[in-house]
């Protein structure tokens, strides 16, 4: 039986629809190209491979849009999979502005989960982008060491908690509303930690934690209680005395003695966070790592990731050159001393060597003339869409959809229609019913599609 799903169609039986023909992690070549994988089909195929992979699987998308699409789709096709997102900074290389707090929070939550993982059961997929994986990050031991676990009944020192939050990148405010913020009111500490979708209120009774409560950031009202809180860093730079000393020493080694006004150097020397200091992250650590060091499993390269990687390498070189070749700043503008590209980013050679050490799957949306050797075909193809019906005044779109459905049903197919939201799904189901499509059935998981009877919608 064949299945039609959205704009992708795969001709295979229901039992092996989640498999790439003739592929096995244990016997695969070090690098295998899989052709015939249009958008949507990649998540379907990857979901079927996750259970048999050794360790977490690292998927590299060309950009954030494709990364989020992959994460959402795998959540549908394989709901038992733990999906961790690692987005790129939302700023340009060698920028003066820092990445957004929510982006940093998601990155740190993923790094902390990976660094602290110890034999977690079930498949794990880490989704990231070319821009994110090419950038060096804080080492695992720094992430593990910079965490604090709190439970009701623990005895704590309020000043120690405040000091921890300040040293690990949290911003003190009057009211906590965004990730990375904290507030102190008497014996109450509100904190919005990475990895949480809501802030948590720490109620102290003297030096004892009496209660931990989640609360709504807008209304400030309690939504639930929790029995454990893990405080993670809110910045990728842990600004303690040793980090400050390392930064000062290495900054001078790279750029010479600091003369005149250098706000970055002055702020860090005083233990103050300076906007955009993340672009000098390697100076704060003895060594840096990359996402490859956090994830030891196979790597899947998404469609168009090769082009995105080349563009990113070019962008890094261009922006570094622009900074390095214009040392004289405009009046009133702070100096900018850029790190060498290979200090903050992987070089093309290091990227290649990292992949050479892994089992790599490379998805290609186009079908190769012949699939052989280190190339396999998933046999996925895009189906015909309804562009013509949408653009012709003499055709009714839903009549065209109904006709298409009847043709597919005549071939004994079940039909799956993917919608953007639950609301749009319910509206479309009603519209289809109004146009004589019998019993369109809303479903929430891929298993329901696999089990559907031939002819059902």
Structure characterization notes:
The chain starts with a strand and ends in a 7-residue tail after the last helix. Mean pLDDT is 87; it is low at 1-16. It is globular. The strands form four sheets. A seven-stranded parallel sheet has the order 5-6-4-15-16-3-17. A six-stranded mixed sheet has the order 8-9-10-11-12-13, with helices on one face. Helix 1 (41-50) packs across helix 2 (64-77). 34% of the residues lie in helices and 17% in strands. By secondary structure, it is of the alpha/beta class.
Class by SSE composition = alpha/beta
Largest sheet: 7 strands, parallel
Helicity level: 25-40%
The total strand number stands at 19
Distance separating the two termini: 15 Å
> What is the strand arrangement across the widest sheet?
5-6-4-15-16-3-17
Tell me, briefly, the overall form.
Answer: globular
Stretches where pLDDT is under 50 for at least 5 consecutive residues are 1-16
Strand content: 15-25%
**CA radius of gyration:** 26 Å
Q: What is the overall pLDDT average?
A: 87
Question: How large is the count of helical segments?
Answer: 16
Question: Which structural traits does this protein have?
Answer:
6-stranded mixed β-sheet, 7-stranded parallel β-sheet, 457 residues, disordered N terminus, 16 helices, single chain, 17% strand, alpha/beta, globular
Question: What is the topological layout?
Answer:
Layout: E1 3-5, E2 8-10, E3 31-35, H1 41-50, E4 57-61, H2 64-77, E5 82-86, H3 101-116, E6 124-129, H4 130-133, H5 140-145, E7 148-150, H6 158-167, E8 171-172, E9 181-185, E10 188-191, E11 200-205, E12 208-215, E13 222-225, E14 229-231, H7 241-255, H8 263-269, H9 291-294, E15 299-301, H10 305-324, H11 341-344, H12 348-356, E16 360-363, E17 375-377, E18 380-382, H13 387-391, H14 397-410, E19 414-416, H15 422-434, H16 446-450
Parallel strand pairs: 1-19, 3-16, 3-17, 4-6, 4-15, 5-6, 8-9, 15-16
Antiparallel strand pairs: 1-2, 2-18, 7-14, 9-10, 10-11, 11-12, 12-13
